[in-house]
């Protein structure tokens, strides 16, 4: 049986986070009533003319820079002609011959190996409107143009991916990069990050690519892997039974757990691109590109490498803490404040804050797109860990204090005072407590005297109970042994 | 039309893409007219343009840009009134069937 190798290229459409649409001043905000965000330009009323949004162009340049693309000094908008109700003009304004960003690349890690995936191009285009099919009882499609005209970058990869795992890793990495540079909110559910996959297979060792199928509608990381795996298996089945793969568009049906042919929409793939006469070429100067490069936020991979080096984090911890731009920011801020207040080294502080954030804070964090809601401020974490550091409380009590902080929003020191949680390191006070307990437990003392020294655990428990866990365990042990031996 | 610049089939194909229904007679008429236009354009082939950069726009200028500031949108009811049909705030069009 012939062994086949999959060849996969991905096309990602990512909505850019500008406030207004690509060619008009309508807001891009999600969730408005249908068609509330429309105007003559995005509805294609006669005579309306498009004017490019400078911010959208700059965001697209930044996406290009983050992916090491060659940014074109002049790029050209072109018309992609087809008819569909989501397209009021009868064409989509996109880029064809001269895209804004040329060749670039993105490095992914799969099974501990780094692989460089080529980026063919990144161009700018407007999004289509949203069709709602068969809404209510009526046999109509309703068109909502709020999304129509929203600026997108289409990021086209080279056919460098060789497995569904690699495709998923590429997508996750790409989404991370776009989120960290603030170009895209990474919200797959709201459709602001969408993916099509070109999948073909070829006998191992063959240079030439096989016939590819284009997979649409795979808008979750879970579906991406499943859809591509299914499609690879389907094509292997076709070839092994002596058939040929036909070039076609297929859609992933989660309900049926397979890809389905969308034959019939094929003939429309004659787009007759030509430069849009309404739009002169878009110029981006060398100086502007340099300025945009200078303000490009640190990329997640660079951040992780820096944390491992400067803060002594493990690769795993760095990965978890850089899972979202706001979580990364939170961790860095808490670490900075903790270093400032405790005088600890960066490495010591990084590890302590990193552990606490992962173990306690993260399960209370809710993210939605680029936003994240934290239970307490990073300064409160620095203050709390400061209290552990100076011996006011121990690590176990810190978790208890944190729970109160989350519940009440009160500062850690105030909680420690109010609940009397400070560790008793005052040996006098501990001695008093120990004596009282020894007096009240003559039988256990006798056991100890008989050599059953394990019973010391019982006394420690009694002291901790009496002091609500606030006694310094080391001091309790020392005092107990001393007083017991004196009996 | 043996050495036609555009074939009869190409005319029908372009008509289909443009959602135009042409009778055979109309299509033949279009073919003749398009053929004449393309023949006229062929005159440009005499020029050597190997060293001329492609013209993407007829006016040599860069696109003016717009700041990213929201502007007032159109009145939705006014916009929808102009559509042949609308429902629940959406433009209503004949049902588009999609493979699900």
Explain this structure to me?
The complex is a heterodimer of chains A (about 475) and B (about 100). With about 475 residues, chain A is α+β, with helices and mostly antiparallel strands. Chain A has 15 helices and 17 strands. Chain A has helices spanning about 55-65, 165-180, 220-240, 285-295, 300-310, 315-320, 325-340, 345-360, 380-390, 395-410, 410-420, 425-440, 440-450, 455-465, 475-485, and strands at about 5-15, 75, 75-80, 90-95, 105-110, 115-125, 130-135, 140-145, 150-155, 195-205, 215, 250-255, 260, 275, 280-285, 365-370, 370-375. In chain A, the strands form 5 sheets. An 8-stranded mixed β-sheet of chain A has the order 5-6-9-1-10-11-12-13. A 3-stranded antiparallel β-sheet of chain A has the order 4-3-14, with no helix packed on it. Chain A has a two-stranded antiparallel ribbon with strand order 2-15. In chain A, helix 7 packs parallel to helix 9 (about 380-390) and helix 12 crosses helix 15 (about 475-485). The termini of chain A are far apart. Chain B has a domain at about 10-40: Histone, subunit A (Orthogonal Bundle). Chain B starts with 7 loop residues before the first helix and ends in a 6-residue tail after the last strand.
Fold topology:
The complex is a heterodimer of chains A (487) and B (100).
Chain A: E1 4-15, H1 54-66, E2 74-75, E3 77-81, E4 91-95, E5 104-110, E6 113-126, E7 130-133, E8 140-144, E9 151-157, H2 164-180, E10 193-203, E11 213-216, H3 221-240, E12 248-253, E13 258-261, E14 274-275, E15 282-283, H4 286-294, H5 300-310, H6 315-321, H7 325-342, H8 346-361, E16 366-368, E17 371-373, H9 378-389, H10 395-408, H11 412-418, H12 427-440, H13 442-449, H14 456-466, H15 473-486
Parallel strand pairs in A: 11-12
Antiparallel strand pairs in A: 1-9, 1-10, 2-15, 3-4, 3-14, 5-6, 6-9, 7-8, 10-11, 12-13, 16-17
Helix pairs in contact in A: 2-3, 6-8, 7-8, 7-9, 9-10, 12-14, 12-15, 14-15
Chain B: H1 8-17, H2 24-41, H3 76-81, E1 86-87, E2 90-94
Antiparallel strand pairs in B: 1-2
């Amino acid at each position: 049986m012939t062994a086949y190798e999959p060849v996969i290229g991905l096309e990602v459409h990512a909505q850019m986070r500008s406030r207004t649409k690509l060619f008009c001043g309508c807001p891009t905000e999600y969730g408005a009533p249908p068609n509330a965000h429309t105007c003559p330009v995005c509805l294609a009323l006669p005579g309306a003319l498009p004017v490019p949004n400078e911010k959208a162009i700059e965001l697209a340049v930044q996406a290009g820079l983050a992916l090491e693309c060659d940014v074109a000094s002049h790029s050209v908008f072109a018309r992609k002609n087809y008819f569909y109700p989501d397209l009021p003009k009868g064409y989509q304004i996109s880029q064809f011959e001269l895209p804004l960003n040329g060749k670039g690349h993105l490095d992914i890690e799969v099974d501990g190996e780094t692989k460089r995936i080529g980026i063919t191009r990144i161009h700018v285009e407007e999004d289509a409107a949203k069709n709602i099919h068969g809404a209510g009882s009526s046999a109509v499609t309703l068109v909502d143009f709020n999304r129509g005209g929203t600026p997108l970058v289409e990021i086209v990869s080279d056919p460098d991916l060789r497995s569904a795992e690699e495709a998923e890793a590429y997508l996750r990495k790409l989404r991370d990069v776009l989120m960290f540079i603030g170009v895209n909110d990474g919200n797959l559910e709201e459709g602001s990050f969408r993916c099509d996959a070109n999948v073909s297979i070829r006998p191992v060792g063959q240079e030439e690519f096989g016939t590819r199928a284009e997979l649409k509608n795979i808008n979750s990381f879970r579906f991406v892997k499943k859809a591509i795996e299914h499609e690879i298996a389907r094509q292997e089945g076709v070839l092994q039974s002596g058939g040929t793969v036909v070039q076609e568009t297929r859609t992933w049906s989660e309900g049926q757990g397979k890809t389905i042919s969308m034959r019939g929409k094929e003939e429309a793939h004659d787009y007759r691109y030509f430069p849009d006469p309404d739009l002169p070429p878009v110029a981006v100067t060398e100086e502007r590109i340099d300025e945009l490069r200078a303000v490009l936020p640190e990329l997640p991979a660079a951040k992780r490498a820096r944390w491992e080096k400067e803060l002594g984090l493990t690769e795993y911890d760095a990965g978890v803490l850089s899972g979202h731009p706001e979580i990364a920011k939170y961790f860095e801020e808490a670490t900075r404040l903790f270093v400032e207040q405790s005088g600890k080294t960066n490495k010591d502080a990084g590890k302590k804050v990193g552990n606490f954030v992962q173990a306690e804070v993260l399960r209370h964090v809710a993210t939605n797109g680029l936003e994240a809601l934290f239970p307490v401020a990073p300064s409160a974490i620095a203050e709390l860990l400061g209290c552990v550091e100076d011996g006011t409380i121990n690590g176990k009590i810190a978790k208890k204090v944190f729970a109160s902080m989350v519940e009440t929003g009160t500062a850690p020191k105030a909680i420690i005072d109010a609940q009397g949680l400070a560790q008793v390191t005052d040996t006098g006070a501990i001695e008093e407590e120990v004596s009282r307990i020894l007096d009240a437990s003559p039988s256990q003392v006798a056991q100890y005297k008989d050599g059953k020294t394990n019973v010391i655990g019982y006394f420690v428990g009694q002291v901790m109970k009496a002091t609500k866990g606030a006694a310094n365990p080391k001091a309790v042990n020392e005092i107990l042994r001393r007083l017991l031996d004196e009996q | 039309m043996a050495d036609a610049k555009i074939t009869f089939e190409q005319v029908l194909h372009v008509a289909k893409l443009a959602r135009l229904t042409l009778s055979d007679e109309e299509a033949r008429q279009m073919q003749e007219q398009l053929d004449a236009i393309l023949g006229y354009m062929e005159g440009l082939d005499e020029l050597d343009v190997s060293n001329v950069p492609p013209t993407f726009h007829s006016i040599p200028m860069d696109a003016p840009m717009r700041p990213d500031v929201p502007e007032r949108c159109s009145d939705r009811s006014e916009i929808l009134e102009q559509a042949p049909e609308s429902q629940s705030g959406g433009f209503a069009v004949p049902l588009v069937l999609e493979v699900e």
